[in-house]
Write a structure and sequence with these properties.
Layout (H helix, E strand, L loop, with lengths): L4 E6 L5 H9 L5 E7 L3 H28 L3 H20 L2 E3 L2 H7 L4 E4 L7 H9 L3 E4 L7 H14 L3 E3 L8 H11 L6 E9 L19 H4 L3 H4 L1 H11 L5 E9 L17 E8 L4 E7 L10 E6 L2 E4 L2 E5 L2 E4 L5 E5 L2 E4 L11 H9 L9 H20 L3 E2 H10 L14
Parallel strand pairs: 1-2, 1-4, 2-3, 4-5, 5-6, 7-10
Antiparallel strand pairs: 7-11, 8-9, 8-17, 9-10, 11-12, 12-13, 13-16, 14-15
Helix pairs in contact: 1-2, 2-3, 5-6, 6-12, 10-12
């Protein structure tokens, strides 16, 4: 049986509840043994949530085991109940320093439920200690941070995964990727992905979010880092993980009503990005926290020489030639036919189980350090391009990131570099 991965949770704020529930859902594969937050009360509260959640699940599983008539299901419920019950005896350790937790606690992996500005340091500390890392989205604020995280985990031989990979773990995404990478829709030369909200800015139209969302020094950016990361991540997966070569972006902030808070607000509300990949593909991304656009199609569109994807719908080209009475070709009549996707007959894990499976095997998580670095190159490169007013190369992105006086302040859309 696969090893039960011992998890240390770093960050006990708003998003940490999803990490706790994610690991508790897999009692035979994961055990949360420690939590850490610089605010002691947050850490204690989340530790109590782990214990309470495990107790509730144990009681429910035990009750359901008595009701089920299927022997296999009954044994599985009993095993899960026993695993959840162990939390009461083992407890959950509480820390306020992630370095101390990594150093003194018996862990196999850490799960980062922290803001973007607290991703690189704990990842490097965990990797240096031989621990696997699951990271919240976005993986990093800059391409340099992402590269540092990836290289540290690769050097240590540990797995690095991040949260937005969950968008890829389903039969439809798997099938689209197969059609694209196998040549079933021919030469894939272009794609477009559009996603925007009417009004959905953290702490402006939506409340209860950390103040860091609107400060590029902490978040890296606005809409492209918050919501765009999901779509960019999925597109990289569907296209077969191509390497970005050049990036051109524009960014805008100014939708009504304007932000009136006292905190810094220097991130974009809308971004449009054009990416050229080294394999010849190109892709356009449009993302917005705020827009005055309605009724226009949103989603992903992939253009191939033999077919296309419009969202999750597959269209294959089935045209034919018109001929004269001697059989000579006169005119080609193109025709697209919507075709059912050939979906794989297999189970897809959720993002937490995908990470746990990778920790116990030679496989990489679906969204790993390589993918995360490419996604971050696009996001950071887009905002740098918007500031410079021109297209940049990925090599140039790293060079300019290294020139800044502050280590990783993000790319504010109002001030200079």
């Amino acid at each position: 049986m696969a090893k039960r991965i011992k998890i240390g949770l770093i960050g006990c704020g708003m998003i940490s509840g999803s990490h706790i529930n994610g690991y508790l859902a897999h009692p035979q594969h994961a055990e949360i043994v420690a939590v850490c937050d610089t605010v002691d009360e947050n850490a204690k509260r989340r530790a109590e949530q782990v214990l309470a959640g495990a107790e509730t699940r144990a009681n429910e599983a035990a009750a359901n085991a008595k009701k089920t008539e299927n022997p296999e299901s009954r044994e599985n419920l009993k095993e899960n109940a026993a695993r959840w019950t162990e939390y009461k005896d083992n407890g959950v350790k509480v820390f306020n320093d992630f370095n101390e937790m990594i150093k003194t606690c018996e862990l196999d992996a850490v799960s980062l439920a922290t803001p973007p500005f607290v991703h690189e340091a704990p990842t490097l500390a965990a990797a240096n200690a031989g621990k696997h890392v699951f990271c919240e989205k976005p993986m990093a604020r800059t391409a340099t941070e992402a590269r540092n995280m990836r290289e540290a985990c690769d050097k240590a031989g540990v797995k690095l995964a991040y949260q937005s990979g969950g968008t890829c773990l389903n039969p439809t995404s798997y099938a689209i990727r197969d059609y694209v990478t196998s040549g079933k829709i021919g030469d894939v030369h272009y794609g477009r992905l559009t996603s925007y909200r009417l009004r959905g800015r953290p702490n402006v139209d939506m409340f209860g979010f950390g103040r860091w969302f609107l400060n590029s020094a902490y978040s890296g950016g606005g809409t492209i880092y918050d919501t765009g990361v999901y779509d960019i991540n999925r597109s990289i997966y569907l296209l077969g993980s191509p390497q970005p070569a050049t990036i051109s972006g524009i960014a805008y902030r100014g939708m009504l009503p304007e932000y009136t808070g006292d905190e810094i607000n220097d991130v974009e509300e809308f971004a449009s990005v054009f990416v050229r990949f080294t394999n010849g593909m190109s892709f356009t991304y449009e993302h917005g926290w705020s827009s005055n656009m309605a009724g226009q199609p949103q989603g992903i569109f992939i253009f191939g020489s033999k077919g296309s994807f419009s969202g999750n719908r597959l269209f294959l080209e089935k045209g034919k030639w018109e001929t004269d009475d001697k059989g000579n070709r006169r005119r080609y009549q193109g025709n697209l036919e919507e075709t059912p996707l050939e979906l794989p007959d297999r189970h897809f894990p959720d993002k937490f189980r995908d990470f746990l499976n990778a920790c116990n095997s030679d496989a990489q998580p679906v969204s790993n350090g390589d993918v995360g670095q490419k996604v971050t190159e696009i996001m950071s490169g887009a905002l740098l391009s918007a500031k410079l007013g021109r297209e940049i190369t990925v090599e140039e992105l790293y060079e300019i990131e290294a020139l800044r006086t502050e280590p990783t302040p993000g790319w504010p859309i109002l001030s200079g570099i």
